[in-house]
Amino acid sequence: MTFIAMNRFQVVKGREKDFEDVWLNRKSQLEDVPGFEEFNLLRGPENEDHTLYASHTIWADRSVFEDWTRSEAFREAHKGAGSRGDMYLGHPNFEGFDIMDAATVTKK
Fold first, then answer.
1. How far apart are CA 13 and CA 21, in angstroms?
2. How far apart are CA 87 and CA 104, in angstroms?
3. Could you tell me the residue ranges of all domains in the chain?
4. pTM
5. How many whole angstroms separate alpha carbon 23 and alpha carbon 28?
6. In whole angstroms, what is the distance from residue 65 CA to residue 18 CA?
7. 3-state secondary structure 16-67
8. In 3D, which of 71, 65, 67, 64 has the Cα closest to residue 94?
9. What is residue 82's predicted lDDT score, i.e. its pLDDT?
10. How far apart are CA 75 and CA 81, in angstroms?
11. Cα angle value 27/29/31 (rounded, 5°)
């Protein structure tokens, strides 16, 4: 069953460019991970003290995602993440979802 993994980040107002630069210039390690299908970085609403972002990945199933989280590639991709804590209001909020139903649209 396809699995979606999301992390929500509350980025301190005024630090959005710094946050985006980290994500857009990183070496993600994902393209070589078995079972990885898609990544999206989402920018959400602006609030008084933060802007909401989410990382959104699609995996073949939950087990390949869990394998990734225990891998050396995962550790390498997340190296130094703790040193940027001043960009965030709190820790990222992880949410994982098994896809129960899906639809796609083919545009002509």
1. 15
2. 36
3. 3-98
4. 0.85
5. 8
6. 27
7. HHHHHHHHHCCCCCHHHCCCEEEEEEEEEEECCCEEEEEEEEEECCHHHHHH
8. 65
9. 65
10. 10
11. 115
Q: How confident is the model over 21-79, as pLDDT tens digits?
A: 988 888 777 888 999 999 999 999 999 999 999 999 999 999 999 999 999 888 887 77
The domain 3-98 is placed in CATH, from the list 3.30.930.10, 2.60.40.10, 3.30.70.100, 3.40.50.150, at 3.30.70.100
Non-local (6+) Cβ contacts of 36 within 8 A are: 30, 57, 59, 60, 64, 68
Tokens of 34: 């078995």
Chain Cα centroid distance, residue 84: 16
